[in-house]
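As the work plan foresaw, our protein records have gained a structure token line. A representative record is set out beneath this paragraph:
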Amino acid sequence: MSRAFVKEDDGEQEPVGNLGLPPRDDPGFPAAAALVLIEQACHGNMQVAERATGIKWGAPQLRPHVEGFLEKEEARPFLEQDHRFIQVAKRFLREGG
């Protein structure tokens, strides 16, 4: 995992926002997990996201969901785009192979 996505303080990391994950057996869990991983990485909380989802950064099974989120974000008008989200999603896709 890139150091760019990890906070380096000694305290316990807290998630940013509500993680809102459905149960793991819910069909929507993979998409929700992908979104949590990207959003928390934007705030340097990868360990929190990986612990909450049980899925490691770059997991290939999440690739279609990350691609979909990226496509949707890039389709927005440029000034409304979350450029950090785009950057992090692209990194996820690169690191996931």
